[in-house]
């Protein structure tokens, strides 16, 4: 498998800001030297692996166990207004179409099937699975538990969470300080509070039975700051899908 070593010299402030999982609002760099130093410390020893290419002589991929084969959605090359995006600014997809599923797994004496079917549009966890290139298209082989939810429409607010995931509509950031000063976009602190829009069916116990989540739709919750997958809905609202264990309190 081809590998490429990430070095500090290959990372700019712009690429750092767009690096998957790094929140630009919390990253403050004063000078190119500072960027280089942070990049060197943050990415030392990190190796980016290219997708495994499946030779043309193989005509199918059959996932085993509780694994799923997903055809990755292509990157957005334009903004909503039609502006072409450079490669560094294109958003890495976190979704795709299920094209094959494994036979499931056994927990205790219970046979547990895969929670998604072929043809379903799904969202998956960041960095999950093994990427393969098959028939000229990028695919991902990942575990059923790495699938965050099913997209039944083209709007994330309609995401159907799976297993122990919950979908939260993030509260709007404060526009002013306590003293009444208006905040700029860059200085607004991203909230870790939101309203639960949808909940998954729950986790599996040691016998393979579902245990419903203790969080209910409509609750206002406080969640871990760096957890989950962030999305923006068609209405411009911010959403986050995360595990129920990343919800740390219910507010009332």
Uncertain spans? 1-48
- CATH topology of the domain at 158-251: the name is 10 Kd Chaperonin, Protein Cpn10, Chain O
Question: How would you name the CATH homologous superfamily of the domain at 158-251?
Answer: GroES chaperonin
Pairing-aware structural class of the strands and helices?
mainly beta
- The secondary-structure element order is EHHEEEEEEEEEEEEEEEEEEE
pLDDT average, as an integer? 76
Count of β-strands: 20
Beta strand %: 25-35%
Helical residue percent? under 10%
Head-to-tail CA distance between termini: 52 Å
Strand order of the largest sheet: 3-9-10-4-5-8-11-12
CATH arch. level architecture of the domain at 158-251: Roll
Largest sheet: 8 strands, mixed
Morphology call: globular
Number of helices: 2
Query: Which CATH first-tier class of the domain at 158-251 would you pick?
Result: Mainly Beta
Q: Give the radius of gyration.
A: 20 Å
Could you outline the blueprint of secondary structure elements for this entry?
Blueprint: E1 3-5, H1 13-18, H2 32-43, E2 47-49, E3 52-53, E4 67-72, E5 95-101, E6 105-107, E7 110-112, E8 121-124, E9 130-134, E10 137-143, E11 147-151, E12 159-161, E13 165-170, E14 193-199, E15 203-204, E16 210-211, E17 220-223, E18 229-232, E19 238-243, E20 247-251
Parallel strand pairs: 3-9
Antiparallel strand pairs: 1-2, 4-5, 4-10, 5-8, 6-7, 8-11, 9-10, 11-12, 13-14, 13-19, 14-17, 15-16, 17-20, 18-19
How does this model look, in words?
By secondary structure, the protein is mainly beta. Among the domains are: 62-75 and 92-151, Roll (10 Kd Chaperonin, Protein Cpn10, Chain O); 158-251, Roll (10 Kd Chaperonin, Protein Cpn10, Chain O). The chain is built from two helices and 20 strands. It holds the Pfam family Cpn10.
């Amino acid at each position: 498998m081809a590998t490429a070593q990430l070095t500090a010299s290959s990372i700019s402030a712009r690429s750092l800001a767009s690096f998957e999982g790094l929140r630009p609002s919390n990253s403050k760099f004063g000078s190119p030297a500072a960027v280089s130093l942070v990049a060197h410390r943050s990415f030392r020893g990190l190796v980016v692996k290219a997708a495994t290419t499946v030779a043309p002589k193989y005509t199918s991929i059959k996932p085993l166990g509780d694994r799923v084969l997903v055809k990755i959605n292509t990157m957005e090359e334009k903004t909503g207004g039609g502006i072409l995006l450079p490669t560094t600014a294109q958003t890495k997809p976190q979704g795709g179409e299920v094209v094959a599923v494994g036979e499931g797994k056994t927990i205790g004496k219970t046979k547990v099937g895969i929670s998604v079917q072929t043809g379903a549009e799904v969202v998956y966890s960041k960095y999950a699975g093994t990427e393969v290139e098959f028939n000229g298209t990028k695919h991902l082989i990942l575990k059923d538990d790495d699938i965050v939810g099913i997209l039944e429409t083209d709007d994330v607010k309609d995401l159907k969470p799976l297993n122990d995931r919950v979908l939260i509509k993030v509260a709007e950031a404060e526009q002013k300080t306590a003293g009444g000063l208006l905040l700029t976009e860059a200085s607004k602190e991203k909230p870790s509070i939101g309203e639960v829009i949808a909940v998954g069916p729950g986790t599996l116990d040691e016998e393979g039975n579902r245990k419903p989540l203790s969080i209910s739709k409509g609750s206002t919750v406080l969640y871990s700051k760096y957890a989950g997958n962030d999305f923006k809905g068609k209405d411009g609202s911010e959403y986050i899908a995360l595990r129920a264990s990343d919800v740390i309190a219910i507010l009332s």
